[in-house]
Amino acid sequence: MKNFDIKRFWQVLKWTVLTEKKSIFTAALAFLCAFLAIQLFSCFTIFDLSHGLGSGPTFAGMMTCAAVIGFMWFYYASGVLGNARTSQQRTTALMLPASNMEKFIARMIYCCILMPLIIYVAAFAATGLRMLLELIAGHDNIVSGLSIIGFKVNMNINGATDIFSSFFDVSMTCWNISLFVLGGVFFHQRPFIWTIVSLVAISIVFGTIFFYIGVMIGEDNIKHFLMNFRGMTFETFDFIASLVFTAFTLFNVWLSYWLYKRLQVVQHKWFNV
Question: Distance between CA 202 and CA 264 in Å, rounded?
């Protein structure tokens, strides 16, 4: 099957969710308990349960939850082949009556949208439960912290600047996620760990190369080159950078799909790290 069929795709997506329903329920419950524990640890003290600690500890707890959300987003993005780790799982995935594109997009939606969304909902639910418990405990100052996944809104910033800045943030986030999707398809064993190791190694190599290039070019020549961009506005820079990150994201997704199409029951030993 090479053609994309929307009805068949929805069937594949429903099958993916149904086969992972136990993992979804377990993850939702685990993250709810974890986020609630983090926030309660930040907002309650063992010395005085009748007074909240104010906005500082509450903010610290919410930032910890946000860091967990970002970490797990990358973790789940690397799980595109989570249903094809073993030979039996790969056989089931390959024999599924659907095209490779339909199966790949269904896994992308499950790993990069559905699971992060469940984590966000768990964070909001934990915040609501924490506020309820603080009310019961008689805390004087309750900070909701519902802005954990909110977008930055600043009325003092120019509207166009805010839009281009948000576009830049979204494109860079998608690019980072696409790196873990690519690592999840390339590495079949412990993809999250191997992807992080690979990214760190690549960063070190490129950082070293750029350093020596800068030494060869010379500091004065670099300053002269950068002077040409002094007239560039933030909007222009954000727009150009966003286009670059978007292009890299599309390339990573295409390369991930190209590797996904070559999925076999018996994997090549170099791809089965």
Answer: 28
Q: Which of 96, 119, 116 is nearest to 108 (CA)?
A: 116
* DSSP code, position 220: H
DSSP assignment string, 50-81: TS---HHHHHHHHHHHHHHHHHHHHHHHTTTT
CB 124, CB 27: distance < 8 Å: no
Residue 246 CB partners (closer than 8 Å, separation 6+)? 171, 174, 175
Q: Are 119 and 26 in contact (CB under 8 A)?
A: no
Segment 173-232, tens digit of pLDDT: 999 999 999 999 998 888 999 999 999 999 999 888 877 777 777 666 666 655 665 556
71: closest CA among 103, 109, 29, 34?
34
User: Token pair for residue 190?
Assistant: 């412990």
- Read off the pTM: 0.79
DSSP string covering 225-261? HHHTTTT--HHHHHHHHHHHHHHHHHHHHHHHHHHHH
Cα separation, 135 vs 84, in Å, equals 47
CB atoms within 10 A of CB 240: 12
Q: What is the pLDDT of residues 94-126, one digit of tens each?
A: 888 888 899 999 999 999 999 999 999 998 888
- Alpha-carbon gap, residue 267 to 270, rounded angstroms: 8
